[in-house]
Amino acid sequence: MSKLVNSIREAIQLAGLKDGMTVSFHHHLRNGDFVLNMVMEEVANLGIKDITVNASSLFDTHLPLQGHIANGVVTGICANYISAPLGRAISQGILEKPVQFRTHGGRPSDICTGNTPIDVAFIAAPTSDPMGNCSGKYGKSACGSLGYAYADAMHAKKVVIITDNLVPYPLMDFSIPEIYVDYVVNVDAIGNPKGIVSGTTQITRDPVGLVMAQHAVKVIENSGLLKDGFSFQTGAGGASLAAAKFLKDVMLEKGIQGSFGLGGITGYLVDMLHAGCFKSLMDVQCFDLKAVESLRTNPNHQEISAMQYASPAFKSAVVDSLDVVILGATEIDTDFNVNVHTDSNGYIMGGSGGHSDTAAGAKLSMIIAPMFRARLPIVTDHVNCISTPGKDIDVLVTQGGIAVNPKNVELTKNLKDAGLPIIDIHELKEKTERITGKPKVIAKGDRVVAEVISRNGGILDKIYNVPSF
Amino acid sequence: MRRSMLFLPGNNPNMLINGNCLGSDAIIFDLEDAVAPDQKDAARILVRNTMKYMDFRGCEIIVRINSIDTPYWKQDLDEIMPHRPGLILVPKTCSAADVLEADAYMTQVEEKLGMEKNTVGLMPLIETALGVENAFSIASATKRVKALFLGAEDLTADLQCKRTKESREIEYARTRLVVAARAAGVDVYDTPFTDVNDDEGIQVDAALAKALGFTGKASISPRHVEVINAVFSPTQKEVDYAYEVLEAIALAKEQGKGAISLYGKMIDAPIVNRAKQTIAMAEALGMERGM
Amino acid sequence: MEIKKLASAGTMESSDAYVEIEPATGLEITLESVVSQQFGDSIRQVVRDVLTEQGVENAKIRVVDRGALECVIRARVETAIVRGGN
Lengths: 469, 291, 86
Known about the structure:
The complex is a heterotrimer.
Chain A: E1 4-5, H1 8-15, E2 22-25, H2 35-45, E3 51-55, H3 65-70, E4 74-79, H4 84-91, E5 99-101, H5 106-113, E6 120-125, E7 127-128, E8 134-135, H6 150-155, E9 158-163, E10 183-186, H7 193-196, H8 207-221, E11 231-234, H9 238-254, E12 260-265, H10 267-275, E13 280-286, H11 289-297, E14 301-303, H12 306-310, E15 324-327, E16 331-333, E17 338-339, H13 355-361, E18 364-368, E19 372-373, E20 376-377, E21 379-380, E22 395-398, E23 401-404, H14 409-417, H15 425-436, E24 448-453, E25 459-464
Parallel strand pairs in A: 1-10, 2-3, 2-6, 3-4, 4-5, 5-24, 6-9, 9-10, 11-12, 11-15, 12-13, 13-14, 15-18, 16-21, 18-22
Antiparallel strand pairs in A: 7-8, 16-17, 19-20, 22-23, 24-25
Helix pairs in contact in A: 8-9, 9-10
Chain B: E1 4-9, H1 13-16, E2 26-30, H2 40-53, E3 60-64, H3 73-80, E4 87-90, H4 96-113, E5 121-126, H5 129-133, H6 135-139, E6 147-150, H7 152-159, H8 171-184, E7 187-190, H9 199-212, E8 216-219, H10 222-232, H11 236-254, E9 261-262, E10 265-266, H12 269-284
Parallel strand pairs in B: 1-2, 1-8, 2-3, 3-4, 4-5, 5-6, 6-7, 7-8
Antiparallel strand pairs in B: 9-10
Helix pairs in contact in B: 2-3, 9-10, 11-12
Chain C: E1 7-10, E2 17-22, E3 27-33, H1 36-53, E4 59-65, H2 70-85
Parallel strand pairs in C: 3-4
Antiparallel strand pairs in C: 1-2, 2-4
Helix pairs in contact in C: 1-2
């Protein structure tokens, strides 16, 4: 038996892809990914139309999708995150059917329960054997964890592994096993390593970012959660990384031994693991080379699937055991609802990713954001789009003060007693507007271009087109 | 209260507008080294507008003007002084004559604006060998001088030695400035620690400055502000002692005693003054008496 | 003030504004802003205010705003005027 096929085109044909079907992709190769574009180009060449693309995330490099939408090859998109160039086009209304935004936990739930069936999953794998045992830890295009691809592999009707590092059978230390795989294609390159993982990301030198990071760590210190067994997730943004660095200093100084770091893993979390701040890292995605190296070599650095990371459809997920998560926001309203989907002009430029999953799971979910960006206040009366509901957000840290969700009575008291600059979120909004001026509310179109689906199912909010002037 | 002072480049809007959120007691808008010669006009107008339109309550504003041997400094003062900065930092001050020259023009501007004389204080920046040697005459040149400020980067260049983290090369300048300032009855501020990423280094350097008698310390990075503030804040013990001093004085007055002692030590005027300063600072910081 | 020559002030960095001014007959203001939807009208008004304060009646002025606060826009416009008038 051989699963090896000569080309992506052949794999598409063998998998039986037809008009109206759904294909899926993961985003572990991030902005370095070649696979989605290679596959969709062949789909177009084969004259197949009306395809739904279910991708865990879409980046700048996937802009060719715009052409496939224009010529009717692609008619539907499901994603957890869509970066600005394609997002902008979608906001301008290029797609008739609204995009379905899910969360990193919600996507695998819907795949596993059959809500969003996948006909053919195309899984980029930095290393694979001819039977499809594959891994992201090895090869020239190594990306580390393949966490977002598990549900696709397990539940798609046909699974195609696309690799640029074919090794003899059997590959040891595989992530996805051969039992799910139908075909394996060996290509020259599945991605550009420069876009897949970054080198060392420096912590921010922006003074505002540093001040926010210091505030954030003080909030954690005084939350009552920073003790032995502590668990933590943070993003890869400048201020979040600075917070991780400062948190590490505090944990070492106080001799606190945490239990795990979660999430998209960066070198900073790896440093914390090495320093003894955590016993383990739970890794759904690697952000940099240091994280990839650590996942490959350190047995305490564990790859996990998106299902285990964040899915509410299973008996438990790691987010349910999470103490603290630090998150970002493009806007937050006075009810603490957060927008990470659209920019200040209403254009799609992101998505929840794990935002609302971790916010829902963590005991303390904290937003770090400056009071204003480019003159636009972060706190608004109503966010343009609800990505994460305010009930799941506990604290907003800005350089101009820390706003605590009023539901957290005890936390408010603790932080006040610790001398932190606590401010009512309405007051923070007014304080910011005294600096920036009050922005005019932006015009919204009347056509829905995307639906934000809550991690538990059901529509959380709708994103409207941006009218052209 | 000026435990920490943070330098912010004068032509960088992003930094200026967030100046009061960075945790320092004072911010120094820099029109000198941080601004290229062809942008002096732009920075001057930008800093003036920032002071005019923005609310920096709770954070004192200091402006470093260009030195008096440049064509810029008078215009700097013309634009800045109407907005009442706490202090004007005058770089490369080498002698009492330099102070008198700056003071004379500041007086002129105050008169023009109908402001009381000495509304705006002056802080000479001592960053030359000559300035260090003239420290006392500089500090006592006019009533406008409120403090001395040590600038080690330019000073070490002038001394023809290397600026090091250990700071042995500025030991003399530091102690000399503290003595001169205290002799003249003014405050004295220490040079920034320039390695932004050395968290231990800043702690050691700030503690040394405090031990030598500096009132506070400048910084070029907000990352250092917190450490500096902590080092230059009074300890609970110091606060408690200050209250005891004042109580002892009050009691002595009541009993009509002249000289009094506390814990076997004579309480004299400098100790009383220091106690008052400590309590003022403790109150500003929301510290209460512990015992 | 009479604008005698082409002059510019400010930068294209975030939170700043870049302003160009040149001699013209009458006033002509063009604005490009990342926040034009939210603040476009108020920015145009501020530019006009500064031109009036500085007594500029004839000039072509172009403002590229990168999310600058009002006091920053005022400063950049004023600097450009002073530079163009010298």
